[in-house]
Fold this sequence. Notes:
alpha+beta; 10 strands
Amino acid sequence: IFKELCEKALDNYENSILNADELNKKIELKEKVENFLNWLLETNEPIGKTKGGNFFVVEIDNKTIVIYSEGVERFDGIFNLNLSIFMELLKCKDEFNNATEMFKKVFNRDYADRTHTYYFNLVKKFKAYEEKQLTAKIENNKNNDNSLKPYIIIIDEINRGNLSKIFGELITLIEPSKRIGEKEELKVTLPYSGEKFGVPKNVYIIGTMNTADRSITSLDTALRRRFEFIEMMPDVSKLSIDCEGINLQELLKAINTRIEYLLDREKTIGHAFFISVENLESLKKVFKNRIIPLLQEYFYNDYALIDAVLNKNGMLEISVENKDYLKNMTEFIESDKIVYKFSDSNNWNKDTFIKIYK
């Protein structure tokens, strides 16, 4: 995926620095000739005309262009042209009046044979075809935006993998000074395909990191030098201040302040948990299915600390069990041990949540 993205980005980068003429020259002559000959085959377009009739390209391969000339009995009207000779003739930018003049200039040949006429007309046809293609391309470029565009790849939770192994030699290639288009641009040879590969300057790698899962302190120093680190802490301003009378901004701020003191700031809860909360019922669901399980994980089921984070708002209550079940376990159980359980979420109300921050 990254290689494909870089190829598209490189094509955009190269096009962004070319004008229409340079863009046309970018395509290799061989590719142009191939497109031209395929067009002649597909359309059955006549190359030119002799006394006997029109002549056409009827077959092509890597070395030969096969011509059929109407009204010619010799060789049943079939003539083979050498593809290499045709390519050499195209490389000459001079204009010629006839086949003899053309072969004299390019190959220093004074004699002429019948095939020279076919070569001459084929060259003329190619130039006319190219002129038409260039005109169409210029018109197309007027409508297309060839300005430099950013190509972005996003790697979610990038710090959960072994980054040195994931990037490998890309570690060097993604340096700003080593990008394609910079003075110190660098390419490597890919081990399997043998292709040359580099990273264009308009490719951007964005990696997200959840520091609650794995600290960024374990990141390779070489990798740190090649990325800018932008901290995205919980932003309570994105939340409602009146969700059926509950201030979600104050609620999250209160919870995170306590978490930061009991644990650390990397464990604070993100505002994304509450973005979709629209009413009391959806807030209950978020707490029951997401916030409370997260707190259980953070505090290793130390319910006294969880109760403190929730400001003893009633979501946790002391469990009163039948003591008869424990009568033969007194030597194993601490006499002052308190067992907590979560109260029924159906009984949670507006005041349950307001109590968290007041």
